[in-house]
Fold each of these.
Amino acid sequence: MHELGIIVHITKTLRSVAEENNLSEIASVTLEIGEVSGVVHDYLTDCWQYYRKKFPLIENAEMKIETLPAVTYCEACGKTYPTVEYGRQCPWCKSPETYLVCGNECNIREIEAQ
Ligand SMILES: [Zn+2]
């Protein structure tokens, strides 16, 4: 999976944010992870525990994860529905002409400085 890649990317972002704001230590970082992003939360946390030790800036930073619900839009009838429950087929009109509106995210929502 790509969990370690996500952590490496987040760490880069945190370092540049810290540099811009003259932060020497980050207390916590909150991530928003989409329901269908395929990211395994436990594995992401494990990667974080291991990787944060490399940088004094984030050594003691706690990682919090918030899940964003996945929503799919149906082009045929214009309605939206929960992706995890119904998959690619619209539960209203049974059309397969649907696309994911959100639920694939992996964003930093909040950074707390020490
Ligand atoms: Zn529909």
Note: DSSP finds three helices and six strands in the chain.
Amino acid sequence: MPIVNLLVKPASSLCNMRCRYCFYEDEAANRTQASMGVMTRDTARRMIGQALEAAGPDGSLQVAFQGGEPTLAGLPFFRDFVAETRRQNTNRLPVSYAIQTNALALDEDWAVFLARNHFLVGVSLDGDKTLHDEFRVDASGKGTWTRIQRNLAMLQRAGADCNLLCVVTKRCAKSAGRIYHALQKTGVRYLQFIPCLDPIGEVRGGRPWSLTPDDYGHFLCVLFDAWYRDWKEGRYTSLRLFEDYVHLAMGLPPSTCATSGRCGAYSVVEGDGSVYPCDFFALDDWKLGNLRQTSLAELSKSERAVDFLRRGLQRPAECGDCRWQRLCFGGCPRDWVTDGAGKTGNYYCAAFRRFFAHAEPRLMEIAAAETAARRNAPTF
Ligand code: SF4
Ligand code: SF4
């Protein structure tokens, strides 16, 4: 049963905010064409048809919209997209939608649309007002926390399923507990944390927001302590990275490619139909082609796509005898760096080692409890 997973950028790298650490703005600036424009209805229509065909008679389709800021494609684009998918989905395959948004441009119409169509809405929020407003600013340089909070509450009132995405900067890393509790206060119980990226080609660690391995290791340990305490006391908050580690300890598949040790879980489709194998490699060298000329199915079998998968399966040499391999798999290749002596390793390796040493017994405790709970759960 093929699962076709698309990460669609309907407004390319266009954005109504100017987050100082934005990785996609940097990535777009590193390719021949930074913005590939807003997706036309015709490109969307072709993409939907090709994706449903690739899913076959019994597969499924997962579409995640991202940017830049995807809502800049406009609500009519999204309405059309959902209607067109319904029209073309003659096999009635399961289709799910997600959107990652800064939430700045949302209004009641958006909130109702997203809730009605069961979009999983990821809202970017960096903890509390002080931390968020330091880097997440609008086009005039003003902090956005108050407006995002208001729009998040509007989404919740409309009944949309929300999760929060927090970018871990150097400053955030010092305040893991404070951020965790600030995010919990919104009432959203699904949280994701992703390390902030340094610009492509720069030696890591040189920007005010740069997250060093030491910062990240500290952050993960403090965050885990707070999360574990909640689990122990029956106040569960879903935290994607830690849940992935628990699932791996239980012998279950994790939810992200970065924790699975395999690239190629999804395809990125840019505004003009250009296709890339990963959001972190949406660069000229990794462009697979354009779905307006070559179908998604064919592009996924192209030499570059196969090469990308092959590279993603390799591990840095130092991972070979590491005792944390079965939980870590070397992490995401975007974090693999080569030092002056030609030795490749994960930039955050020291953070992972510190975290696993700190958390392993408790990760195993949760895994054992979850396994027992599943065993005892009634089956119908
Ligand atoms: S490079 Fe990282 S994010 Fe990209 S597909 Fe591989 S594991 Fe996933
Ligand atoms: S902790 Fe470091 S050495 Fe071990 S698997 Fe992860 S990245 Fe590789």
Note: The CA atoms of residues 167 and 264 lie 23 Å apart.
Amino acid sequence: MKKIHCLNPIAACGTDLFPADYELTDNFAEADGVLVRSASMHEMELLEGLLAVGRAGAGVNNIPLDACAEAGVVVFNTPGANANGVKELVIAGMLLASRDIVGGIGWCKANAEDEGIAKAAEKSKKAFAGCEVKGKKLGVIGLGAIGAEVANAATHLGMEVYGYDPFISVNAAWRLSRNVKHITNADTIFQECDYITVHVPLMDSTKHMINKEKLDMMKDGVVVLNFARDTLVNDDDMAAALASGKVARYVSDFPNPKVAHMDKAILIPHLGASTKESEDNCAVMAVQEMTDYLENGNIRNSVNYPACDMGVCQAESRIAVLHLNIPNMIGQITGILAEQGVNISDMTNKSRDKYAYTLLDLEHRPEAMTIQKLNGIKGVLRVRVVK
Ligand SMILES: NC(=O)c1ccc[n+]([C@@H]2O[C@H](COP(=O)([O-])OP(=O)(O)OC[C@H]3O[C@@H](n4cnc5c(N)ncnc54)[C@H](O)[C@@H]3O)[C@@H](O)[C@H]2O)c1
């Protein structure tokens, strides 16, 4: 019986997919796998029994990735599962910023008791008028799951779309419309676009990527959209750019006290992925990834271990070795198996940064002593008998 603990509510259409011999537990301490959305795991102790963490969503800064890797805990996320939900809100954000729709709605509410509201509206509406997005230039920084969807959708609105992503994946490149202009220097986007939207992960290298220097390069009256992470934008610099009129509107999905006090900001309470469809997609994907790892040792969409897929084990046994990415690990692992007379029928070794993963199909079930010896190799973080 495998036990799964949910740190946040996870859609039943996902958890229902666990095999019959799995059960959900309220007790974190007995969990083989943990499913999480936004709950912070930074202060949690990683217990020996925990094998995997499934983040139902894309961002993983609520999870201590290195500490998990060191403890032999594979962390998965669900890239792309909420991309359509975020894309739809980005498009809505762009439209909200193009006319003062929010102000106009406020005006209607404020004048709700006026019998002559229809006539008054005709007089007052010019204060809320704006422009159309068709024919305008949109710059998309980061062309992953979300950025590519936003870029493609904007081409259908008649926008001229510039896309910048020096690390674009092959899959994302395939998904991108041919009408999106490939930009090789982000400054071109800062200098030329009427709307700029960021869809990059938050990292040391991307923190405050929208700052005074970049804002100064932008066209007067530009609209900046941030549905990725709040600290990608320097709030003080943005407040100054809004106050001077350099930026007409800042649309952000990340409320904080500074942005909440910016008059020209359109602030949304982190609704990007808050759709039933996104939550369902994330739950299904997280459960499928976790089940494939617990049942078969396969790793798909991990953020701290390499991808590895050997399908369903047809051999007598399968073991998984999570280890540091240092020389002579395979030699030592296969040496111990050979010494113990265990024949390997298939194996894969993959590495990613500091960590590596070796999955071995064996012709005999290894003895407890063999597993103990593998665990004793310096640099081995966990050995798991998958089958
Ligand atoms: N508002 C929300 O509710 C919500 C929901 C999901 C995701 N997000 C955020 O959106 C971000 C993007 O999500 P995604 O699913 O598209 O991720 P993704 O990993 O599919 O795409 C990120 C892209 O950014 C690119 N990139 C990295 N550094 C870059 C740089 N310096 N310049 C240009 N491109 C760079 C990568 O190559 C990748 O293609 C996530 O990291 C997350 O923070 C927000």
Note: The chain has a mean pLDDT of 97.
Amino acid sequence: MLKMQNISKVYQTDSVQTHALRDFSLEVKEGEFIAVTGPSGSGKTTFLNMAGILEPFTSGHYSLDGIDVGGLSDNQRADLRNQKIGFIFQGFNLIPDLSLFENVEVPLRYRGVPAKERKKRIEECLEQVGLASRAKHLPQQLSGGQQQRVAIARALAGKPRFLLADEPTGNLDTLMARQVMELLEEINRNGATIVMVTHDPELARRAPRNIQVVDGQLADFTLYQGVPEASQPVVDTRIKAEV
Ligand SMILES: Nc1ncnc2c1ncn2[C@@H]1O[C@H](COP(=O)(O)OP(=O)(O)O)[C@@H](O)[C@H]1O
Ligand SMILES: [Mg+2]
């Protein structure tokens, strides 16, 4: 579904060049749930921004569902992003003076979805995150965990096949973080591919595949179900044997 080959991203400020990603290569298959860890400043957010087509990359090759992202115009990039990708951020990014319903509605209006269809989708998505009864509330009337669930409903309303989450539980306590993780797991079971940056080792371990970004590159460290890729077939057998 996602294929990045030798992606580099250089941020140029007045006198400084920052190589936020260098020769970054990664393949993500449809239906995967990947946790991304790595030190602060290592390029995790930059990677999500590239994957989510929020910003252009400096060099390399990126294809999403077989579409060569590097070859698209700005409008085509925005269309592809709107069709396929949903974002969840650490800070929820809800609009404080809009109700939950209206918050989820914003991206749908932006996409020109007709009013009747908007209402149906918003109700379905608030239902899915367990907040249907709160549709008229304002974000400040909710806990942090609930606010993040609204942000997830907003991302889901666009029916993304690919969900990118940047430290979605970073502002939440352990219990709320687990609830958000459970919701993401359910969304993944329903078919969405998820890439989640997290600092939380417990949550990272729960994701079927773990990757690590160090110094703008993918570290030589990929775990599937907590074990290195190379020993995958052996471990599969063992897990089955234990069951
Ligand atoms: N818009 C930007 N302009 C300049 N430098 C940036 C910008 N965004 C990120 N960087 C730099 O790129 C590097 C990677 O940042 P980031 O992807 O945010 O790391 P992480 O999410 O892993 O903490 C850092 O050195 C950061 O300072
Ligand atoms: Mg970051």
Note: The two ends are 31 Å apart (CA to CA).
